[in-house]
Amino acid sequence: LEEKLKEGVVRYPGSGLIGDKRNIFLMGHASTLPAVNNEMYKVFSKIRQLNIGDKVKLYSGDRVYFYKVTAM
Predict the structure, then answer these.
(1) Strands (E), 1-72
(2) pTM (two decimals)
(3) Mean pLDDT throughout 25-39?
(4) Do 34 and 40 meet the contact criterion of CB atoms below 8 Å apart?
């Protein structure tokens, strides 16, 4: 898992798939430390700035999916 997280966001096995009606559980780093050079460690660093009603864009292959934040 730790090796995959170095490459970006990881979907928890068994959770919903992108485009599915089920909940998707995504994991990723959220570092705000300036010394961190791997950008994948910062992928969720601004997640705390999201608000209910905001839209989130997910990319999968050549497709783009939009989700709306419904709870925090």
Answers:
(1) 10-11, 26-27, 55-60, 63-68
(2) 0.71
(3) 88
(4) no
**List of long-range contacts for 64-70, beta carbons under 8 Å, 24+ apart:** 65/18, 65/19
Query: How big is the chain, counted in residues?
Result: 72
Average pLDDT over residues 67-72: 88
Q: Which amino acid is at 5?
A: L
Element (H, E) at 2: helix 2-5
- Tokens matching residue 52: 């209910």
Q: In which residue are the tokens 């997640």 written?
A: 47
CB half-sphere exposure, 62, CA atoms < 13 A: 0
